[in-house]
């Protein structure tokens, strides 16, 4: 290995020399020259952050100048926030003892890919396609689905009621990476099985434009509405050419 | 107490605190200097003034008024309380001398004096005892230094360190360097390792004779300071028998917590292998009958079941089959086993005369970013984890990597056709390399599942990610460690996996639980390496505290502690028969351990830098080690493990006598030009694959 390129004492600024000396004291003999720059930058950033915090604390305490106590407090707060250290040993032994008491769970045979419940997986689609058309077409014979107003229109996480408010909330699984426009809102809807109620409710929700719900998801009692789905069921053949063609077969989570 | 008062009065007078002295005298109703025959000095509780006075030895007729227990022992009190010590002095001039002495110097004289007194004693002791008693130096040094720091005697601590740190053994140098940076009490708070060191007991194994010698000396010398530290912070595991030689001791010490207590290694460990399930194997060439039914012997087949073991008896050292729940064998697994067997039949028998060929996979243009490598069991895929947080999978065989078709296309294929497994793959996505994005930090560990469906990767961002190798997407992110995770591995039967990280614990997970099933806590420093035993019932963890621990999956207990390495452990390998464990660390030595007895049985010296890869050949005849010194070395494992002397004495006391046979066991050294070796893998036919990233320095 070629010798480390340390700045010669004559040309390096004093801070860099100090850093080089610190590295030497800690026994580090081989390092890239950019390490010193990185350490200098870290030291500068850390010290200025602490001093700024200390200034805030001292002005809050209505002191005329920053003193050691302010700096100490600033350091402590920053340490708890950024430079956390792993939990202490007795705590770890304690939780380990608790965790290790439960017997290992039995494995169900023939259960396909063994993954945690969907809300803990990253397998859900993390996007939705926005449909632009405003027509609310209810094809005959099909269950017309109430449409929800999604964040783009109103930012209230409203649970639209359809005559029968949802008594049993089925929460939408938290999708990782929900589209930005939604800002992580969730909706729970329970659609009663009676279609009449649904149909009657439909005209009362004219504000919905954006998200149409795939009626293939409607189960017997509860449905899980994912807000990031677009369905082509209720759109006529003038569907948005941008829409995917295979939405009917998309395998969304069925409950 | 009267003497205490007199001493305090003396002290106050010396410090010219006349008024206080008067008040105290009035209250105590003492008149004049009344020293009498003996005086005990007491230090006041102000920091910097607290002192422990050493008794000049050999003053006859003096009462042993020593009570030198520093209240900071145990390190739990806030701030420094007064320390009480007794000094036996004969007459006044001595008192004043002592008092003036400690006035100016305070603590360090006494600590340093104690330490140097002990040093002198040990150096003058008999040779046979000296090696054992020298073990005391390091823990005593560290504990005294930490006490000084904790009580905020900064300058005293510094001078104590300066004076004695050169005397310590060379393999403690790294620890001492860390210690030298701990100069204030606040520094200690952030350093978990040092706090753990302070609160846990350092284990020393000393023979009874040496121990008696030490005890007698400490108690008669009346400087109970050291005796108190010994009782408080050290655990002396006494054994009856011959004192150990320096060589024996050096082999076993080195960890952050001393050695392992003998009881720690006494639990029964089921190191045998699980019986393979019996199922009949269809013969390939003369396969007229096709699949045979179970249990029906055919006249062509010489063996009834080729996969399962023939003996019906349970191996006494093997765990019961259902000790821990294991996933059942699927059809694809059975096919895999058949393939495995066929390959095993064509396996090259290795030995000192027949060394394996080595095929090296060099990662180019990695710019020192390659941090983890794994190869599937059938050597068809290789994965690299990189510092830029990507995980890249390559196909080693001409068969390219394909992902499964989308759901739409899948509905169109003919599900009844014979090659449905081929048809579900999308040809358009075939490529030799797949890049998996998802982590937000360097990927430090990767592991393929035995059925090649999943890939695990663990990273500095604290998560372990499960990737599907059929869709090449990320399925789950397991969050539990909130600190960098250094290593992860799938169990040999799949479903379970273990991960170890900076938070000093290893966790056992199952792919279908989002929280860990077991937490293995006990190490004093980061867990750097985690491996499953071939029977999936035990997990070995190597740590930066220089110990290896073997944990039981069933109940999370630590069943073995192996000490002896002088640096953080970076590689572990179980022998295929499950009886032995090989470990490699930054000190360049490979140590071999007998799991059943819990003893070190071999030491392989030769490498000059950290050993990052260790692997036994498929039948356990050869141990291959790869290291940062750009070499792969092959060692004769059969010879290393034969003729183990495990008589009662050895197992009872844990003494080992390692033969210096590293040179005999070394079968070959293979150098790369400038590529450190970070992964080794024996194919099913005993071809050795090695992997590393080319570094141009």
TrEMBL record, chain A:
Family statement drawn from the similarity comment of this UniProt entry: Belongs to the TAF9 family.
Keyword set includes Transcription regulation: yes
Query: What PANTHER family does the database record attribute to this sequence?
Result: TAF9 RNA POLYMERASE II, TATA BOX-BINDING PROTEIN (TBP)-ASSOCIATED FACTOR, TATA-BOX BINDING PROTEIN ASSOCIATED FACTOR 9
Q: Does the keyword Transcription apply?
A: yes
Tell me which CDD domains the record gives.
Answer: HFD_TAF9
Can you name the source organism?
Answer: Bucorvus abyssinicus
Question: Where does it sit, as one GO cellular component term?
Answer: transcription factor TFIID complex
| Keyword field | Nucleus, Transcription, Transcription regulation
Q: Region Disordered: list its residue ranges.
A: 231-255
The processes (GO biological process) annotated in the record are:
RNA polymerase II preinitiation complex assembly
Q: Which Gene3D superfamilies match?
A: Histone, subunit A
Q: Which gene holds the coding sequence for this protein?
A: Taf9
GO MF terms on file? protein heterodimerization activity; RNA polymerase II general transcription initiation factor activity; transcription coactivator activity
Classify the source by domain of life. Answer: Eukaryota
Q: From start to end residue, where is composition biased (Polar residues)? A: 231-240
InterPro entries hit by this protein:
Histone-fold, TFIID-31, TFIID_subunit_9
Q: Any idea what this protein is called?
A: TAF9 factor
Q: Where in the cell is it found?
A: Nucleus
Q: What is the lineage of its organism?
A: Eukaryota, Metazoa, Chordata, Craniata, Vertebrata
UniProtKB/TrEMBL annotation, chain B:
Q: Name one GO biological process term.
A: transcription initiation at RNA polymerase II promoter
Q: Which residues form a coiled coil?
A: none
Example GO molecular function:
RNA polymerase II general transcription initiation factor activity
Which segments carry the region annotation Disordered? 54-78, 281-333
Nucleus is among the record's keywords: yes
For this UniProt record, give its keywords in alphabetical order, as a comma-separated list: Nucleus, Repeat, Transcription, Transcription regulation, WD repeat
The keyword Transcription is assigned to this record:
yes
Q: Which residues form the TFIID subunit TAF5 NTD2 domain?
A: 106-234
Biased composition (Acidic residues) is annotated at 281-292
Query: Where do Basic and acidic residues bias regions lie?
Result: 304-315
- WD repeat segments run 363-404, 436-471, 478-509, 520-561, 562-595, 604-636
Which family is annotated?
Answer: Belongs to the WD repeat TAF5 family.
Subunit structure of this entry? Homodimer. Component of the TFIID basal transcription factor complex, composed of TATA-box-binding protein TBP, and a number of TBP-associated factors (TAFs), including TAF1, TAF2, TAF3, TAF4, TAF5, TAF6, TAF7, TAF8, TAF9, TAF10, TAF11, TAF12 and TAF13. The TFIID complex structure can be divided into 3 modules TFIID-A, TFIID-B, and TFIID-C. TAF5 forms the TFIID-A module together with TAF3 and TBP, and in TFIID-B with TAF8. Component of the TFTC-HAT complex, at least composed of TAF5L, TAF6L, TADA3L, SUPT3H/SPT3, TAF2, TAF4, TAF5, GCN5L2/GCN5, TAF10 and TRRAP.
Q: What is this protein called?
A: Transcription initiation factor TFIID subunit 5
Q: Which organism is it from?
A: Bucorvus abyssinicus (Northern ground-hornbill)
Gene encoding the protein: Taf5
């Amino acid at each position: 290995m070629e010798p480390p390129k340390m700045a010669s004492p004559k040309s390096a600024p004093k801070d860099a020399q100090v850093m080089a000396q610190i590295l030497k004291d800690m026994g580090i003999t081989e390092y890239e020259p950019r390490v010193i720059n990185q350490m200098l930058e870290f030291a500068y950033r850390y010290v200025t952050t602490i001093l700024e915090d200390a200034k805030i604390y001292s002005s809050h305490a209505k002191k005329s100048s920053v003193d050691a106590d302010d700096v100490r407090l600033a350091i402590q707060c920053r340490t708890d926030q950024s430079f956390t250290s792993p939990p202490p040993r007795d705590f770890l032994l304690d939780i380990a003892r608790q965790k290790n008491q439960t017997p290992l769970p039995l494995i169900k045979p023939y259960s396909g890919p063994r993954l945690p419940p969907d809300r803990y997986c990253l397998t859900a689609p993390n996007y939705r396609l926005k449909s632009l058309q405003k027509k609310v077409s209810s094809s005959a014979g099909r269950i017309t689905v109430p449409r929800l107003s999604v964040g783009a229109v109103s930012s209230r996480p409203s649970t639209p009621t359809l005559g029968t408010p949802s008594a049993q909330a089925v929460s939408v699984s938290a999708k990782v990476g929900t589209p930005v426009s939604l800002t992580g809102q969730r909706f729970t809807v329970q659609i009663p099985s009676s279609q009449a109620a649904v149909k009657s409710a439909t005209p009362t929700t004219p504000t919905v434009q954006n998200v149409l719900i795939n009626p293939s998801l409607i189960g017997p009692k509860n449905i899980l509405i994912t807000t990031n789905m677009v369905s082509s069921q209720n759109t006529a053949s003038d569907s948005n050419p941008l829409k995917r063609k295979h939405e009917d077969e998309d395998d969304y989570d069925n409950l | 107490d009267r003497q205490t008062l007199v001493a305090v009065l003396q002290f106050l007078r010396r410090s010219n605190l006349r008024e206080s002295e008067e008040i105290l005298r009035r209250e105590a109703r003492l008149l004049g200097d009344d020293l009498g025959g003996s005086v005990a000095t007491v230090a006041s509780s102000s920091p910097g003034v607290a002192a422990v006075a050493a008794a000049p030895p050999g003053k006859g007729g003096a009462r042993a008024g020593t009570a030198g227990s520093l209240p900071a022992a145990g390190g739990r009190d806030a701030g420094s309380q007064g320390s009480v010590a007794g000094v036996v002095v004969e007459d006044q001039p001595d008192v004043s001398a002592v008092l003036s002495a400690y006035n100016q110097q305070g603590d360090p004289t006494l600590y340093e004096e104690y330490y140097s007194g002990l040093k002198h004693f040990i150096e003058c002791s008999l040779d046979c005892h000296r090696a054992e008693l020298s073990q005391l130096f390091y823990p005593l040094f560290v504990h005294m230094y930490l006490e000084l720091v904790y009580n905020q005697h900064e300058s005293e601590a510094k001078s104590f360190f300066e004076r004695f740190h050169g005397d310590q053994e060379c393999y403690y140098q790294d620890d001492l360097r860390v210690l030298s940076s701990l100069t204030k009490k606040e520094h200690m708070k952030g350093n978990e390792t040092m706090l753990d060191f302070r609160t846990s007991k350092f284990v020393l194994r000393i023979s009874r004779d040496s121990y008696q010698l030490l005890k007698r000396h400490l108690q008669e010398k009346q400087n109970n300071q050291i005796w108190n530290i010994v009782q408080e912070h050290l655990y002396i595991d006494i054994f009856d028998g011959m004192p150990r030689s320096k060589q024996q001791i050096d082999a076993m010490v080195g960890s952050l917590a001393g050695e392992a207590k003998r009881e720690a290694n006494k639990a029964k460990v089921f190191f045998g292998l699980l019986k393979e399930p019996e199922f009949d194997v269809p013969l390939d060439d003369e396969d007229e009958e096709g699949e045979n039914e179970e249990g029906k012997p055919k006249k062509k087949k010489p063996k009834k079941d080729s996969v399962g073991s023939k003996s019906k008896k349970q191996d006494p050292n093997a765990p019961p089959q259902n000790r821990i729940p294991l996933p059942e064998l699927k059809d694809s697994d059975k096919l895999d086993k058949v393939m495995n067997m066929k390959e095993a039949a064509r396996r090259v028998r290795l030995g000192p005369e027949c060394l394996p060929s080595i095929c090296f996979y060099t990662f180019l243009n990695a710019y020192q970013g390659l941090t983890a490598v794994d190869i599937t069991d059938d050597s068809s895929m290789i994965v690299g984890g990189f510092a830029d947080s990507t995980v890249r999978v390559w196909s080693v065989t001409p068969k390219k990597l394909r992902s499964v078709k989308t759901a739409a296309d899948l509905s169109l294929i003919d599900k009844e056709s014979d090659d449905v497994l081929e048809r579900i793959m999308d040809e358009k996505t075939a490529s030799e390399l797949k890049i998996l994005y998802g982590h937000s930090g360097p990927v430090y560990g990767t592991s393929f599942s035995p059925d090649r469906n999943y890939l695990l990767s663990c990273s500095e961002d604290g998560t372990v990610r499960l990737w599907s190798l059929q869709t090449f997407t990320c399925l789950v992110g397991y969050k539990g460690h909130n600190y960098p995770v250094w290593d992860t591995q799938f169990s040999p039967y799949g479903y379970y996996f273990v991960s170890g990280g900076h938070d000093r614990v290893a966790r056992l997970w199952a792919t279908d639980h989002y929280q860990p099933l077991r937490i293995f806590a006990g190490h004093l420093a980061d867990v750097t390496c985690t491996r499953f035993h071939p029977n999936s019932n035990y997990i070995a963890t190597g740590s930066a505290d220089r110990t290896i621990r073997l944990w039981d999956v069933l109940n999370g207990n630590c069943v073995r502690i192996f000490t002896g390495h002088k640096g953080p452990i970076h590689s572990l390998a179980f022998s295929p028969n499950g009886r032995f464990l090989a470990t490699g660390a930054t000190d360049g030595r490979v140590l071999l351990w007998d799991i059943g007895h819990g003893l070190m049985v071999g030491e392989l010296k030769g490498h000059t830098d950290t050993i990052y890869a260790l692997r036994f050949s498929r039948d356990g005849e050869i141990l291959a080690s790869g290291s940062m010194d750009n070499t792969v070395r092959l060692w004769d494992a059969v010879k290393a493990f034969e003729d183990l002397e495990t008589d009662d004495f050895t197992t009872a006391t844990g003494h080992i006598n390692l033969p210096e046979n590293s040179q005999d066991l070394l079968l070959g050294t293979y150098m790369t030009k400038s590529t450190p070796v970070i992964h080794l893998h024996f194919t099913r036919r005993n071809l050795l694959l090695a992997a590393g990233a080319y570094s141009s320095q």
